[in-house]
Design a protein that fits this description.
Layout lengths: L6 H17 L14 H17 L18 H13 L8 H5 L1 H8 L2 H12 L5 E4 L15 E5 L2 E9 L9 E7 L10 E7 L5 E6 L8 E12 L3 E2 L5 H5 L11 H21 L1 E2 L2 E2 L4 H29 L7 H24 L17 H9 L9 H12 L7
Helix pairs in contact: 1-3, 3-8, 8-9, 8-10, 9-10, 10-11, 10-12
The chain binds flavin-adenine dinucleotide.
The site of flavin-adenine dinucleotide (FAD) has 18 residues, from strand 1 and helix 12.
Length: 397
């Protein structure tokens, strides 16, 4: 594992730093910076994505012929790491750029590539992902939203849930059942649906931290042109597994930076807190908890480096990607719990309350962290993947 960077890579890092210094939204990342909400946040992130694009920092792993940068894994890792250091936001369409974009590039027609890719990287059109349903999350292949072919159109009926950004999205990439008689993985197709189509109802879901990031989406006889099918009919399951091989691992270095920052913030909170009438850092239990987080953070760091090293040597993260997901999501929850314990009675005060510690920001991140072990594959599912693909243990069912 050689972790040194070439002079050219160091110059690239300097270019990224200068871009971030000149372009980050005013005040971003500073304590007390108030994030705009709702549509105002969408417009801020749209502007941010366009600035990133202008300087060559959007769709970095996409080939140049599709408007990407053809960047190396090391350049992407440097960019992600520098963004994490200043807590910069991702582009508005980041999920689409890493998921449906590569899917269109690999399985789409030339007309689909021309129609959808430029508007995706320029943030002219926002995308949401319609995969999960009320009875199909971890077991996604059980999905029941139907799409029946009638001439040149599909007629879509059913419901999606937990659809992030659906209330702002122009397009939805979704999995639908097109053959009810086939085995469940073989009767699924991959469609792109215009969110302004008649028959679509979006109902925002309120989360426990007060935000409304995701939605229920209902489809009632929604007409979708057949040319919005990606790949062939009933091949959607295979099509949906497309991702750019090096995309996942290049995030590894930035993730370490992000959780190291939370750890440092936690130590600062402990220094400023009191327990049993004296400074919290004098308390053996607090010190042991912080030491445990630090040890876990170091374990996470070396796992990040292992994945990054595999990527730069031409490999792919495979099941080890699940180890990272499990480590960061559970470590972050434990750190957030320590923050609540340090705030003691004040942990009940929200941002609006007088006397809230650090403007109530730990309360929001504590509540938001509960979703980390659910979204993008639950902890139990990650453990199953690690058991089967990393440890080679047999399946139980
Ligand atoms: C913040 C957030 C944003 C999201 N955004 C989107 C989005 O934009 N688009 C989208 O399509 N989806 C989205 N999701 C949904 C997410 O993908 C699902 O919540 C996730 O896949 C889990 O599915 P589920 O909620 O149906 O839980 P279930 O699959 O019903 O699981 C319930 C419990 O059973 C356990 N379990 C299930 N199967 C097994 C098994 N085989 N072995 C052991 N334990 C098991 C799970 O670990 C969990 O504890 C989002 C979720 C969150 C939290």
């Amino acid at each position: 594992m050689d972790l040194s960077f070439t002079p050219e890579e160091e110059r690239y890092r300097t270019r990224v730093r200068e871009f971030l210094k000149d372009n980050l939204p005013q005040g971003w990342g500073a304590p007390g910076y108030e994030l705009p909400k709702g549509r105002a946040l969408v417009e801020l992130l749209r502007d941010w994505q366009r600035r990133l694009l202008k300087h060559g920092f959007v769709a970095m792993s996409w080939p140049k012929e599709y408007g990407g940068q053809g960047a190396s894994a090391v350049q992407m890792a440097i960019f992600n790491e520098e963004c994490a250091r200043v807590r910069a936001p991702g582009p508005l369409n980041s999920a689409a750029i890493s998921q449906v974009g590569p899917t269109i590039m690999q399985h789409g027609t030339d007309a689909q590539k021309r129609r959808f890719l430029p508007a995706m990287i320029n943030a002219d059109e926002i995308w949401c992902q319609g995969f999960s349903e009320p009875n199909a999350g971890s077991d996604l292949a059980s999905l029941r939203t139907r799409a029946e072919l009638a001439g040149d159109e599909f007629i879509v009926n059913g419901q999606k849930i937990w659809t992030s950004y659906a209330q702002y999205a122009d397009w939805c990439y979704m999995l639908v059942r097109t053959d009810t008689a086939a085995p469940k993985h073989r009767g699924i197709s991959y469609l792109m649906v215009d969110m302004k189509s008649p028959g679509i109802t979006v109902k925002p879901l309120r989360q426990m931290h007060g935000g409304q990031d995701f939605n229920e989406v209902f489809f009632d006889n929604v007409r979708v042109p057949r040319h919005n099918l990606i790949g062939t009919l009933n091949d959607g399951w295979r099509v949906s597994t497309t991702t750019l091989a090096n995309e996942r691992g290049t995030n590894a270095l930035s993730q370490y930076v992000r959780y190291e920052q939370i750890f440092n913030d936690l130590v600062r909170l402990a220094r400023a807190s009191r327990r049993h009438g004296r400074g919290a850092l004098q308390d053996a239990v607090v010190r042991q908890e912080l030491a445990r987080h630090y040890v876990d953070l170091q374990g996470f760091k070396y796992n990040c480096l292992r994945v990054f090293s595999a990527i730069t040597n031409g490999g792919s993260p495979g099941g080890e990607g699940s180890i990272l997901k499990l480590l960061w999501s559970e470590l972050n929850q434990r750190m957030q719990e320590t923050a609540m314990a340090l705030e003691a009675a004040a942990s009940q005060l929200t941002a609006e309350s007088a006397g809230a510690v650090e403007a109530g920001r730990w309360q929001v991140s504590f509540l938001r962290s509960r979703a980390h072990t659910i979204e993008a594959g639950t902890s139990e599912i990650q453990r199953n993947i690690i058991a089967q693909r990393v440890l080679g243990l047999p399946r139980t069912n």
